[in-house]
Structures are given as C-alpha cells and as structure tokens.
Write a structure and sequence with these properties.
The chain is α+β, with helices and mostly antiparallel strands. The chain has seven helices and ten strands.
C-alpha cells in the first residue's frame, strides 16, 4: 500500500516474526501502523466457547489494524502470523506525519478502509441470513472481485480458512463446495477451488 522505502524514511521498524507470533491481541491499545513486508497475518476473534472467527488474511504489501489506531480505541481483534513474516511497524505520530506530507496515501488508505467496510457489511449480511452454500460462494466471489478478474480465479484459501472466514464448520464447507461444483458455480481441479 505505502512504499516500504517511504515507511522506513518516516521511521518504520522492520520486525521479523516466527509462525504463530502475536502482533497484537484483542483489547490491546493501538499505537502502531502495520504493513506486511512478506509472509501472512490472520486477524480474528475468539468466541466465549473458543471458536475462532477469521476477519481476514493480509499478505505482502497490505496494511492491517488501522481503525483502532486512527479511532483511538483498543483492538477488537487479534493479529497473528500464519508463517514466518516480516512486518513494518510505525508509530502513530510518524504515520500521521507521513499522511500529512503525502495526502495521496491518505486517500488510498481511505479507499482501502471503505472496501474493507463493504466486505464486513457483505460478510455480516451473508452470515446472518444466508444458507452455507451462499455464504461460501459470496466470500469467494468477493475475493475474485478484489482481484479484478473475469478469468478463472484460483481461490487462495484452504477449506479450513474458508470455514474460518464464513463461521461455518469445516465439514459444512466441504459439503458446500462439492454442492457448488455440482451446480457448476465453481470448479475443483487437483483439490484447488477455481471460480
């Protein structure tokens, strides 16, 4: 999102993290802007009974955790690495200074947050009112749309990750994907989902 050189110029620190390292936990105060340099980060909530509900996955070049930072409230979610990951971390003061000097990145951030809000709205609507097959198809279709392609789209998520994104059980996702394949709404090739 923001060029790494510019982040470093404004005081961002590079942090290398092992697999399953927490970047922040639900309830922690927000003090930093984070951007993935390489690797992947999962943002999630845990219910009272221990069920994990994934809010999203973030990869190289993507930022995460901005609303609590900009809104001055504690994180409503936790962030953990999915693999060995390098992040860039910048203090709020330096981040504000960067945005004031480079308003084009402020605008890009606003666009990104608007798209994430749209995704949350879609996800909430689907989870609260749709049958499992529709939930799965909606999440996959949204991610295809984000990749701005009308060609065949190789879904980057495992069935387990789809289950975490939709709030469904793994077995339900497996059945839903098979049913969607029979309905010719997606294809499965060598175990991979193609939309």
């Amino acid at each position: 999102m923001i060029p790494e050189k510019l982040l470093i110029q404004f005081g961002a620190e590079e942090k290398q993290l092992a697999v399953n390292s927490y970047i922040f936990k639900e309830g922690y105060p927000a003090h930093f802007y984070f951007q993935v340099q390489n690797g992947s980060v999962k943002l999630y909530n845990t219910s009272e009974n221990g069920k994990i509900f994934v809010q999203g996955f973030f990869y190289s070049g993507e930022s995460f955790g901005e609303p609590p930072l900009l809104g001055n409230f504690p994180y409503p979610i936790s962030a953990v690495t999915e693999e060995v990951t390098t992040i860039l971390r910048m203090s709020l003061a330096n981040f504000k200074r960067l945005l004031l000097q480079y308003p084009e990145y402020h605008f890009k951030l606003t666009q990104t947050l608007a798209n994430r809000l749209r995704y949350k709205s879609l996800k909430l609507n689907e989870i609260s009112s749709s049958p499992p097959r529709q939930r799965v198809l909606s999440i996959l279709t949204y991610h295809k749309m984000l990749n701005d392609t009308s060609d065949a789209f190789l879904v980057p998520f495992t069935r387990k990750e789809i289950a975490m994104l939709t709030g469904l059980r793994l077995e339900t996702v497996i059945r839903s994907v098979k049913a969607l394949e029979k309905e010719k709404k997606l294809k499965i090739e060598k175990g991979k989902i193609i939309l």
